[in-house]
Automatic annotation (TrEMBL):
Residues 1-25 form the signal peptide. Keywords: Signal. This is Extracellular solute-binding protein. Residues 411-434 are annotated as: Disordered. PROSITE patterns: PROKAR_LIPOPROTEIN. Pfam families: SBP_bac_8 (PF13416). It comes from Streptomyces tanashiensis.
Amino acid sequence: MSIARAARRTAARLGAVVLTGALLAACGSSTDGASEDGAGGEVTITVDLFGSFGYKEAGLYAEYERLHPGVTIKQTDTEDEADYWKSLQTRLAGGGGLADVQGIEVGRIASVTQQQAERFEDLKKYGADSLKDQFAPAKWAAATGKGGEVLGLGTDVGPEALCYRTDLFKQAGLPTDREELAKKWDTWDGYLELGKQYKAKAPGKSAWIDSVGSLYSIMIGQEKERYYDASGKLIWEDNPALRTAWDHAVEAAQGGLSAKLDQWSPQWNQAFAAGSFATIPCPAWMLGYIKGQAGEAGKGKWDVATLPGGAGNWGGSYLAVPRAAKHKKEAYELIKWLTAPEQQTRLFEKQGNFPSATGAIEKVAGAKDAFFSDAPTGKIFGDAAKAAPVQVLGVHDQNIAQQITNALSEVERKGTSPEKAWSNAKKGVENTIG
Protein backbone atom coordinates (compact mmCIF):
# COMPACT_ATOMS: atom_id res chain seq x y z
CA MET A 1 0.00 0.00 0.00
CA SER A 2 1.08 2.48 0.76
CA ILE A 3 0.00 3.58 -1.88
CA ALA A 4 -0.22 3.06 -0.98
CA ARG A 5 0.81 3.54 -0.45
CA ALA A 6 -1.03 4.03 0.79
CA ALA A 7 -1.66 3.64 0.79
CA ARG A 8 -2.89 0.37 0.93
CA ARG A 9 -7.52 0.82 1.26
CA THR A 10 -11.24 0.12 1.59
CA ALA A 11 -13.65 -1.40 4.01
CA ALA A 12 -15.98 -2.55 1.26
CA ARG A 13 -13.46 -4.72 -0.53
CA LEU A 14 -12.02 -6.62 2.39
CA GLY A 15 -14.49 -6.21 5.20
CA ALA A 16 -12.09 -4.00 7.12
CA VAL A 17 -13.47 -2.01 10.01
CA VAL A 18 -13.24 1.69 9.23
CA LEU A 19 -13.50 3.85 12.31
CA THR A 20 -13.16 7.49 13.19
CA GLY A 21 -10.12 8.73 15.09
CA ALA A 22 -12.13 8.76 18.29
CA LEU A 23 -13.23 5.16 17.92
CA LEU A 24 -9.71 4.10 16.98
CA ALA A 25 -8.47 5.66 20.16
CA ALA A 26 -11.14 3.84 22.14
CA CYS A 27 -10.19 0.48 20.63
CA GLY A 28 -6.56 0.99 21.59
CA SER A 29 -7.23 2.44 25.01
CA SER A 30 -6.12 0.88 28.27
CA THR A 31 -9.72 0.78 29.44
CA ASP A 32 -10.75 -1.24 26.41
CA GLY A 33 -7.77 -3.57 26.76
CA ALA A 34 -8.50 -4.14 30.44
CA SER A 35 -12.04 -5.23 29.68
CA GLU A 36 -10.87 -7.67 27.02
CA ASP A 37 -7.93 -9.28 28.85
CA GLY A 38 -8.96 -11.88 31.32
CA ALA A 39 -7.23 -14.20 33.74
CA GLY A 40 -5.37 -17.36 32.81
CA GLY A 41 -2.83 -15.77 30.46
CA GLU A 42 -5.39 -14.53 27.98
CA VAL A 43 -4.40 -11.40 26.10
CA THR A 44 -5.93 -9.23 23.38
CA ILE A 45 -3.39 -7.69 21.01
CA THR A 46 -4.73 -4.59 19.29
CA VAL A 47 -3.55 -3.82 15.76
CA ASP A 48 -4.26 -0.46 14.10
CA LEU A 49 -3.63 -0.26 10.34
CA PHE A 50 -4.52 1.68 7.22
CA GLY A 51 -5.79 0.15 4.00
CA SER A 52 -5.28 -3.44 2.97
CA PHE A 53 -2.46 -5.18 4.80
CA GLY A 54 -4.44 -8.37 4.19
CA TYR A 55 -3.59 -10.29 7.36
CA LYS A 56 -7.17 -10.99 8.32
CA GLU A 57 -8.20 -11.82 4.76
CA ALA A 58 -5.29 -14.23 4.29
CA GLY A 59 -6.23 -16.07 7.49
CA LEU A 60 -3.02 -15.16 9.29
CA TYR A 61 -4.66 -13.77 12.41
CA ALA A 62 -6.77 -16.90 12.77
CA GLU A 63 -3.72 -19.11 12.42
CA TYR A 64 -1.73 -17.12 14.94
CA GLU A 65 -4.56 -17.37 17.46
CA ARG A 66 -4.70 -21.13 16.86
CA LEU A 67 -0.96 -21.44 17.43
CA HIS A 68 -1.12 -19.25 20.54
CA PRO A 69 -4.09 -20.28 22.71
CA GLY A 70 -5.33 -17.39 24.82
CA VAL A 71 -4.30 -14.74 22.29
CA THR A 72 -6.98 -12.70 20.52
CA ILE A 73 -6.12 -10.19 17.82
CA LYS A 74 -8.34 -7.17 17.26
CA GLN A 75 -7.68 -5.01 14.19
CA THR A 76 -8.95 -1.55 13.38
CA ASP A 77 -8.42 -0.16 9.91
CA THR A 78 -8.63 3.37 8.51
CA GLU A 79 -9.27 3.57 4.79
CA ASP A 80 -7.17 6.63 3.98
CA GLU A 81 -3.54 6.68 5.12
CA ALA A 82 -3.48 10.47 5.50
CA ASP A 83 -6.40 10.30 7.95
CA TYR A 84 -4.73 7.42 9.76
CA TRP A 85 -1.42 9.27 10.13
CA LYS A 86 -3.10 12.41 11.44
CA SER A 87 -4.97 10.41 14.06
CA LEU A 88 -1.81 8.51 15.00
CA GLN A 89 0.12 11.75 15.52
CA THR A 90 -2.58 13.05 17.84
CA ARG A 91 -2.50 9.87 19.91
CA LEU A 92 1.29 9.71 20.00
CA ALA A 93 1.44 13.27 21.28
CA GLY A 94 -1.08 12.48 24.00
CA GLY A 95 0.41 9.11 24.86
CA GLY A 96 -2.96 7.38 24.99
CA GLY A 97 -5.35 5.52 22.74
CA LEU A 98 -2.56 3.65 20.96
CA ALA A 99 -2.78 0.08 19.74
CA ASP A 100 -0.17 -2.54 20.56
CA VAL A 101 0.82 -2.60 16.89
CA GLN A 102 0.73 0.43 14.60
CA GLY A 103 1.26 0.34 10.85
CA ILE A 104 3.69 2.87 9.33
CA GLU A 105 3.68 3.69 5.61
CA VAL A 106 7.13 3.81 3.99
CA GLY A 107 6.68 7.50 3.20
CA ARG A 108 6.38 8.16 6.97
CA ILE A 109 9.17 5.92 8.27
CA ALA A 110 11.80 8.68 8.11
CA SER A 111 9.59 10.79 10.36
CA VAL A 112 9.55 7.93 12.87
CA THR A 113 13.30 7.28 12.77
CA GLN A 114 14.40 10.91 12.73
CA GLN A 115 11.77 12.68 14.82
CA GLN A 116 9.74 10.20 16.87
CA ALA A 117 12.09 7.40 17.89
CA GLU A 118 11.38 8.01 21.57
CA ARG A 119 7.69 7.19 21.03
CA PHE A 120 8.30 3.69 19.67
CA GLU A 121 9.86 0.60 21.15
CA ASP A 122 13.39 -0.32 20.13
CA LEU A 123 12.69 -3.86 18.96
CA LYS A 124 16.25 -4.89 19.71
CA LYS A 125 15.02 -5.28 23.29
CA TYR A 126 13.15 -8.35 22.13
CA GLY A 127 15.83 -9.82 19.88
CA ALA A 128 15.06 -8.11 16.56
CA ASP A 129 18.78 -7.91 15.72
CA SER A 130 18.67 -11.58 14.81
CA LEU A 131 16.18 -10.82 12.02
CA LYS A 132 18.35 -8.38 10.07
CA ASP A 133 19.50 -10.84 7.41
CA GLN A 134 15.89 -11.86 6.81
CA PHE A 135 15.05 -8.55 5.12
CA ALA A 136 16.28 -6.69 2.06
CA PRO A 137 19.04 -4.32 3.29
CA ALA A 138 17.25 -1.15 2.21
CA LYS A 139 14.04 -2.22 3.92
CA TRP A 140 15.84 -2.87 7.18
CA ALA A 141 17.95 0.29 7.06
CA ALA A 142 14.96 2.58 6.51
CA ALA A 143 13.47 1.61 9.91
CA THR A 144 16.74 2.00 11.81
CA GLY A 145 17.04 5.04 14.06
CA LYS A 146 19.99 7.39 14.43
CA GLY A 147 21.21 5.45 17.44
CA GLY A 148 20.79 2.07 15.79
CA GLU A 149 17.31 1.46 17.20
CA VAL A 150 15.10 -0.98 15.29
CA LEU A 151 11.79 0.86 15.17
CA GLY A 152 9.74 -1.37 12.89
CA LEU A 153 9.71 -4.62 10.95
CA GLY A 154 9.11 -4.48 7.21
CA THR A 155 5.96 -5.90 5.68
CA ASP A 156 5.70 -5.56 1.91
CA VAL A 157 7.41 -3.48 -0.74
CA GLY A 158 5.70 -1.89 -3.74
CA PRO A 159 7.36 -3.00 -7.00
CA GLU A 160 5.39 -1.47 -9.83
CA ALA A 161 3.58 -2.80 -12.90
CA LEU A 162 0.59 -1.77 -15.00
CA CYS A 163 -2.79 -3.47 -14.62
CA TYR A 164 -5.27 -3.30 -17.48
CA ARG A 165 -8.71 -4.50 -18.59
CA THR A 166 -8.34 -6.89 -21.51
CA ASP A 167 -12.05 -6.75 -22.33
CA LEU A 168 -11.99 -2.96 -22.68
CA PHE A 169 -8.79 -3.08 -24.72
CA LYS A 170 -10.36 -5.57 -27.09
CA GLN A 171 -13.48 -3.44 -27.53
CA ALA A 172 -11.30 -0.43 -28.34
CA GLY A 173 -9.33 -2.39 -30.93
CA LEU A 174 -6.09 -2.48 -28.94
CA PRO A 175 -3.88 -5.55 -28.46
CA THR A 176 -4.34 -7.47 -25.23
CA ASP A 177 -1.15 -9.53 -25.06
CA ARG A 178 0.93 -8.35 -22.12
CA GLU A 179 4.28 -8.73 -23.89
CA GLU A 180 3.13 -6.86 -26.98
CA LEU A 181 1.74 -4.07 -24.82
CA ALA A 182 4.95 -3.85 -22.82
CA LYS A 183 6.77 -3.08 -26.07
CA LYS A 184 4.20 -0.51 -27.16
CA TRP A 185 4.35 1.35 -23.85
CA ASP A 186 8.06 0.92 -23.23
CA THR A 187 8.13 4.66 -22.46
CA TRP A 188 5.59 6.91 -20.78
CA ASP A 189 5.20 8.79 -24.02
CA GLY A 190 4.24 5.49 -25.63
CA TYR A 191 1.76 4.84 -22.84
CA LEU A 192 0.05 8.20 -23.36
CA GLU A 193 0.01 7.71 -27.12
CA LEU A 194 -1.76 4.38 -26.67
CA GLY A 195 -4.15 6.19 -24.34
CA LYS A 196 -5.06 8.60 -27.12
CA GLN A 197 -5.80 5.65 -29.40
CA TYR A 198 -7.97 4.14 -26.70
CA LYS A 199 -9.88 7.38 -26.16
CA ALA A 200 -10.79 7.54 -29.86
CA LYS A 201 -12.62 4.20 -29.63
CA ALA A 202 -13.28 3.88 -25.90
CA PRO A 203 -16.25 1.68 -25.04
CA GLY A 204 -19.01 3.39 -23.11
CA LYS A 205 -17.78 6.23 -20.95
CA SER A 206 -14.56 4.52 -19.94
CA ALA A 207 -11.30 6.44 -19.60
CA TRP A 208 -7.71 5.35 -20.14
CA ILE A 209 -6.56 5.81 -16.53
CA ASP A 210 -8.25 6.22 -13.16
CA SER A 211 -6.58 9.50 -12.16
CA VAL A 212 -3.54 11.53 -13.05
CA GLY A 213 -2.50 11.34 -9.41
CA SER A 214 -1.85 7.63 -9.80
CA LEU A 215 0.20 8.32 -12.95
CA TYR A 216 2.34 10.82 -11.07
CA SER A 217 2.78 8.49 -8.10
CA ILE A 218 3.91 5.55 -10.20
CA MET A 219 6.37 7.66 -12.21
CA ILE A 220 7.97 9.33 -9.21
CA GLY A 221 8.30 5.86 -7.70
CA GLN A 222 10.86 5.10 -10.42
CA GLU A 223 13.28 7.68 -9.05
CA LYS A 224 15.98 7.34 -6.40
CA GLU A 225 15.78 10.99 -5.35
CA ARG A 226 12.33 12.57 -5.31
CA TYR A 227 11.71 15.12 -2.58
CA TYR A 228 15.04 15.02 -0.74
CA ASP A 229 18.59 14.24 -1.78
CA ALA A 230 20.89 11.86 0.09
CA SER A 231 22.12 14.67 2.36
CA GLY A 232 18.56 15.39 3.53
CA LYS A 233 18.18 18.58 1.51
CA LEU A 234 14.77 19.40 0.03
CA ILE A 235 15.07 19.22 -3.75
CA TRP A 236 11.54 18.62 -4.97
CA GLU A 237 11.02 22.04 -6.58
CA ASP A 238 14.12 21.72 -8.75
CA ASN A 239 14.09 17.97 -9.33
CA PRO A 240 13.82 17.40 -13.12
CA ALA A 241 12.52 13.86 -12.61
CA LEU A 242 9.64 15.21 -10.52
CA ARG A 243 8.81 17.81 -13.14
CA THR A 244 8.81 15.10 -15.82
CA ALA A 245 6.26 13.11 -13.82
CA TRP A 246 4.23 16.30 -13.28
CA ASP A 247 4.29 17.17 -16.99
CA HIS A 248 3.12 13.70 -18.05
CA ALA A 249 0.30 13.81 -15.50
CA VAL A 250 -0.74 17.26 -16.78
CA GLU A 251 -0.68 15.97 -20.36
CA ALA A 252 -2.97 13.10 -19.39
CA ALA A 253 -5.34 15.48 -17.60
CA GLN A 254 -5.52 18.01 -20.41
CA GLY A 255 -5.85 15.23 -22.99
CA GLY A 256 -8.98 13.89 -21.31
CA LEU A 257 -7.40 10.50 -20.59
CA SER A 258 -8.44 10.36 -16.95
CA ALA A 259 -11.64 9.18 -15.28
CA LYS A 260 -11.07 12.01 -12.75
CA LEU A 261 -11.56 9.77 -9.77
CA ASP A 262 -10.16 10.49 -6.33
CA GLN A 263 -8.20 7.45 -5.26
CA TRP A 264 -9.70 5.59 -2.28
CA SER A 265 -13.06 7.35 -2.73
CA PRO A 266 -16.32 5.35 -2.93
CA GLN A 267 -16.66 6.33 -6.60
CA TRP A 268 -13.16 5.02 -7.32
CA ASN A 269 -13.95 1.78 -5.54
CA GLN A 270 -17.11 1.27 -7.60
CA ALA A 271 -15.26 2.02 -10.83
CA PHE A 272 -13.24 -1.22 -10.68
CA ALA A 273 -16.36 -3.28 -11.21
CA ALA A 274 -18.06 -0.77 -13.51
CA GLY A 275 -15.21 -0.69 -16.04
CA SER A 276 -14.76 3.06 -15.75
CA PHE A 277 -11.08 2.95 -16.73
CA ALA A 278 -8.89 0.64 -18.78
CA THR A 279 -5.52 0.91 -17.02
CA ILE A 280 -4.23 1.61 -13.56
CA PRO A 281 -0.63 1.79 -12.39
CA CYS A 282 -0.41 -1.01 -9.86
CA PRO A 283 2.23 -1.67 -7.26
CA ALA A 284 1.98 -5.27 -6.07
CA TRP A 285 -0.25 -4.42 -3.12
CA MET A 286 -2.87 -3.06 -5.52
CA LEU A 287 -3.67 -6.57 -6.80
CA GLY A 288 -5.59 -7.54 -3.70
CA TYR A 289 -7.39 -4.23 -3.79
CA ILE A 290 -8.51 -4.74 -7.39
CA LYS A 291 -9.72 -8.26 -6.63
CA GLY A 292 -11.78 -7.02 -3.72
CA GLN A 293 -13.37 -4.19 -5.65
CA ALA A 294 -13.89 -5.90 -9.02
CA GLY A 295 -15.26 -9.06 -7.40
CA GLU A 296 -15.53 -12.52 -8.90
CA ALA A 297 -17.06 -11.05 -12.05
CA GLY A 298 -13.74 -9.36 -12.78
CA LYS A 299 -11.73 -12.58 -12.85
CA GLY A 300 -10.05 -13.04 -16.22
CA LYS A 301 -10.88 -9.50 -17.37
CA TRP A 302 -7.71 -8.07 -15.86
CA ASP A 303 -4.06 -8.63 -16.75
CA VAL A 304 -0.67 -7.30 -15.65
CA ALA A 305 2.23 -6.05 -17.79
CA THR A 306 5.60 -4.51 -17.05
CA LEU A 307 5.74 -0.80 -16.39
CA PRO A 308 6.70 1.90 -18.90
CA GLY A 309 10.00 3.62 -18.24
CA GLY A 310 11.67 1.01 -16.07
CA ALA A 311 11.24 -0.42 -12.58
CA GLY A 312 10.06 1.51 -9.56
CA ASN A 313 8.57 1.22 -6.11
CA TRP A 314 5.37 2.74 -4.74
CA GLY A 315 4.52 2.03 -1.16
CA GLY A 316 5.32 -0.66 1.34
CA SER A 317 4.94 -0.53 5.10
CA TYR A 318 6.23 -1.38 8.54
CA LEU A 319 4.77 -2.68 11.77
CA ALA A 320 5.86 -0.83 14.90
CA VAL A 321 5.16 -1.06 18.63
CA PRO A 322 4.49 2.23 20.47
CA ARG A 323 6.14 2.83 23.84
CA ALA A 324 2.62 3.33 25.24
CA ALA A 325 1.43 -0.10 24.03
CA LYS A 326 -0.10 -2.31 26.69
CA HIS A 327 1.31 -5.62 25.44
CA LYS A 328 4.74 -4.82 24.01
CA LYS A 329 6.36 -8.25 24.13
CA GLU A 330 3.27 -9.99 22.76
CA ALA A 331 3.02 -7.35 20.04
CA TYR A 332 6.63 -7.96 19.03
CA GLU A 333 6.09 -11.70 18.83
CA LEU A 334 3.07 -11.13 16.58
CA ILE A 335 4.83 -8.77 14.16
CA LYS A 336 7.89 -11.02 14.09
CA TRP A 337 5.62 -13.86 12.95
CA LEU A 338 3.60 -11.79 10.49
CA THR A 339 6.73 -10.50 8.76
CA ALA A 340 8.54 -13.86 8.63
CA PRO A 341 9.26 -15.23 5.11
CA GLU A 342 6.63 -17.96 5.41
CA GLN A 343 3.83 -15.53 6.20
CA GLN A 344 5.01 -12.99 3.62
CA THR A 345 4.94 -15.75 1.01
CA ARG A 346 1.37 -16.66 1.88
CA LEU A 347 0.32 -13.03 1.87
CA PHE A 348 1.62 -12.57 -1.67
CA GLU A 349 -0.07 -15.74 -2.89
CA LYS A 350 -3.42 -14.72 -1.42
CA GLN A 351 -3.39 -10.89 -1.56
CA GLY A 352 -0.56 -9.86 -3.89
CA ASN A 353 1.46 -7.95 -1.27
CA PHE A 354 5.05 -8.40 -2.47
CA PRO A 355 7.42 -9.55 0.28
CA SER A 356 10.35 -7.61 1.72
CA ALA A 357 11.79 -10.79 3.26
CA THR A 358 14.51 -12.11 0.95
CA GLY A 359 13.58 -15.75 1.50
CA ALA A 360 9.99 -15.08 0.51
CA ILE A 361 11.00 -13.26 -2.69
CA GLU A 362 12.69 -16.42 -3.91
CA LYS A 363 9.66 -18.56 -3.06
CA VAL A 364 7.17 -16.49 -5.06
CA ALA A 365 9.26 -16.20 -8.25
CA GLY A 366 7.07 -18.63 -10.19
CA ALA A 367 3.70 -17.41 -8.93
CA LYS A 368 0.85 -16.75 -11.35
CA ASP A 369 -2.48 -15.09 -10.60
CA ALA A 370 -5.63 -16.63 -12.05
CA PHE A 371 -7.67 -13.48 -11.42
CA PHE A 372 -5.25 -11.53 -13.63
CA SER A 373 -5.43 -13.93 -16.59
CA ASP A 374 -2.66 -16.13 -15.14
CA ALA A 375 -0.18 -13.26 -15.36
CA PRO A 376 3.29 -14.30 -14.06
CA THR A 377 3.06 -11.89 -11.17
CA GLY A 378 5.94 -13.48 -9.28
CA LYS A 379 8.31 -12.76 -12.15
CA ILE A 380 6.88 -9.36 -13.11
CA PHE A 381 7.01 -7.95 -9.60
CA GLY A 382 10.14 -9.88 -8.66
CA ASP A 383 12.07 -8.42 -11.59
CA ALA A 384 10.73 -4.97 -10.73
CA ALA A 385 11.77 -5.36 -7.08
CA LYS A 386 15.31 -6.31 -8.07
CA ALA A 387 15.66 -3.41 -10.52
CA ALA A 388 13.88 -0.69 -8.52
CA PRO A 389 16.12 2.08 -7.14
CA VAL A 390 16.83 2.30 -3.44
CA GLN A 391 14.87 5.45 -2.72
CA VAL A 392 16.01 8.32 -0.57
CA LEU A 393 13.37 8.78 2.12
CA GLY A 394 12.70 12.13 3.77
CA VAL A 395 10.76 13.26 6.80
CA HIS A 396 7.98 14.90 4.79
CA ASP A 397 7.84 12.67 1.69
CA GLN A 398 4.20 11.81 2.12
CA ASN A 399 3.12 15.37 2.90
CA ILE A 400 4.84 16.75 -0.20
CA ALA A 401 3.43 14.00 -2.40
CA GLN A 402 -0.07 14.76 -1.14
CA GLN A 403 0.21 18.45 -1.99
CA ILE A 404 1.41 17.63 -5.51
CA THR A 405 -1.37 15.15 -6.19
CA ASN A 406 -3.89 17.65 -4.79
CA ALA A 407 -2.61 20.22 -7.27
CA LEU A 408 -2.78 17.75 -10.16
CA SER A 409 -6.37 17.05 -9.19
CA GLU A 410 -7.10 20.75 -9.68
CA VAL A 411 -5.78 20.53 -13.25
CA GLU A 412 -7.70 17.33 -13.85
CA ARG A 413 -11.06 18.20 -12.34
CA LYS A 414 -11.26 22.02 -12.30
CA GLY A 415 -9.25 22.93 -15.37
CA THR A 416 -6.77 24.94 -13.28
CA SER A 417 -3.74 25.98 -15.30
CA PRO A 418 -0.59 23.90 -14.61
CA GLU A 419 1.26 27.06 -13.56
CA LYS A 420 -1.39 28.02 -11.02
CA ALA A 421 -1.65 24.45 -9.74
CA TRP A 422 2.13 24.22 -9.28
CA SER A 423 2.06 27.49 -7.34
CA ASN A 424 -0.70 26.04 -5.15
CA ALA A 425 1.39 22.94 -4.55
CA LYS A 426 4.33 25.08 -3.40
CA LYS A 427 2.11 27.01 -1.01
CA GLY A 428 0.62 23.77 0.28
CA VAL A 429 4.05 22.32 1.00
CA GLU A 430 5.16 25.51 2.75
CA ASN A 431 2.04 25.48 4.94
CA THR A 432 2.38 21.79 5.70
CA ILE A 433 6.06 21.44 6.52
CA GLY A 434 7.01 25.05 7.26
